[in-house]
## 1
Amino acid sequence: MPQTVSVGELTDLVVRVFLRHGVSGKNAGPVAETVVAAERDGAVSHGLLRLPGYVSTLKSGWVDGRAVPVVTDAAPGLVATEAANGFAQPALRASAPLLREKARRQGISAVAIRNSHHFAAVWPDIEPFAAEGFIALAMVNGGSSFRFSKMRRASLVAVPCLRSPVSGLIATMLE
């Protein structure tokens, strides 16, 4: 029989799955929150359905669940973050305070996260920024491993997502 759980309970459960598979406590939360946000918002293809894929990447060593992002103040409006072969969400979480500070001071800011893995929906990454009144644009690029139907060779893919605050709501403009 189906069972209903709260977002908080589901997040706790997904965090436990990540912890059991070697993800650090600091990294498990941001990744679990993204998985659960997709499930919450009805994008099940980016929610719990992807959990076995996350686990397999951890088991194979393709992703380092214990990676510690290194955040660098690269320029007046730019943050550069080395994700150290970890998940993108903890790298963004580590970058966020400096990114917000730069946006408030400069009127615009950007973060470049490199050497990261992103298997999820993009909008949960930037919802917190929109909730604080920022207009947020996220781009996730894919390596040459992406191949669509009827393509002869793999290509690079960029997935844009724009979030902005509108009358107290968070609106998706593009994804």
Note: The mean pLDDT is 85.
## 2
Amino acid sequence: MYPKASPPGKLMERTFPLALAALAGAALVAALVHAVLVAAHVSEPAATTIYGLTARRIWATTVVALALIGVVIGGMALARPASRFGKGRLGAIVALLAGLIAVVNGWLVLAIANGGPGSGNGVVGGAVALVLGLIALALGGLALGRPRRSKEDAGMSDPRLA
């Protein structure tokens, strides 16, 4: 009735590679965000730092949240194509739309910014939204382009199971 407990060594065998992969992914995203800031010519910190929320920081933070939702949904649609998102297509389309909105808004934040990090323009959030939006677009495109499995391939050769 209850699942068997895995041996203590098995948990460590899975946890360490996952933690290492998460750390490598975070480092890659940070490097890409820095590259976007350099390419947009807003990588120099502001002379005077503005603390607190500004309208552009709220805009950038909202777009980052949308991009992160797109990445999560795109990953779920790619990993589990027959789950809660209508056999993966709806999840892939949602990830594509969220990624596209995040890329456009992240680019707009960077395009209208007149200062670097700390200027209150939300440039770091815009760069993060741009990078995560591109990742969401890639995951959604991969999930949408995946070939569908027929019922016979899924082990449902009996028509009564359909």
Note: Residues 8-39 form the longest helix (32 residues).
## 3
Amino acid sequence: MESPLKKKLVRSDRFHDALTIARQAGLLRGAKTEVVRARMPKALVRKARATSGARSDTELIEIALSNLVVADQYPDWLLAQQGTVGKEVDLEF
């Protein structure tokens, strides 16, 4: 059985990956001029923040929209990452 902490980290990675795909597609470039507003149940917002790791409403909506936009691209993108290691990873050499 997976620990709840490990599940949270995996979900956060998935949302980070969605933002990465959106960034690579140029969807996060440019000025932030669009205003998106909605009234949501407090429990939904709290759970979404906890699951995604978002620190603000803007970041939460950015993660949610990125996740929606790139959902179909995620499996192919993830498979393309096989055998690659990011520059920020310390390989201890």
Note: The chain is about 55% helix and 0% strand.
